Amino acid sequence: MRQLVRTAPPALPAALRTPLAMSAALATAVVVALGILHFHDSGLTGLDAAILPSVDGVQPPWGYLALVFDFGGEPVGSVILVALLAGICFLLNRVRTAVLTVLGVVVTVAVTTVLKPIVGRTIHGEFLSYPSGHTAMATALALVVALLLTDRLGLGRGAAVVLAPGLALVAGVAMGWAEVALGAHYPTDAVGGFCTALAAVPATAWLLDRVADRL
Q1: Which of the residues 4, 86, 117, 147 has the least number of beta carbons within 10 Å of its own beta carbon?
Q2: Exposure pattern of 51-71 as b/e (b: 16+ CB <10 Å)?
Q3: Per-residue pLDDT tens for 160-188?
Q4: With a threshold of 0.85, does the pTM exceed it?
Q5: How far apart are CA 161 and CA 47, in angstroms?
């Protein structure tokens, strides 16, 4: 197994190292800024006040779609998605990417879990909400898919820079919309979750490659 990990293609393709490092730094700043802005706060202001009333409480059939997305972020749904993507990576001999699938999601969700009681933002008076773990998880998986495709397709920096944030944005918006529509999060919670994944996954991939190269 050690040999497989050491000789496997990098989890973080060279074409995306610098762009994702820059986006990770910016995303970290956004997470911190929003955390400070909404520290122990549960009020509707700015972006939340503008978006939440039009999205919260969406009716069927869109409500059913929101529930499907939400299930993907629940423990059972997320385990299924992570196992499926990790299995695909193993079949494609992308061992590091398979490991990143698990570690990237675990680290991302762990960060959101730690931040929630620190920020102390609540929704419905009692539920810690910032940042959104569901949105972070979906974005993390989309980023791993983007890294896998970049490697498998041999994409250059230009195409990779479009693909990675594009997939991440689609996944983050879809899950973020679902969480807001179901009344589980404020819109800025979803933004915080999205940015948490943008910061955590590239850092985890970089560290994984460093460790694997030294095996």
Answers
A1: 117
A2: bbeebeebeeeeeeebeebbe
A3: 999 999 999 999 999 999 999 999 999 99
A4: yes
A5: 27
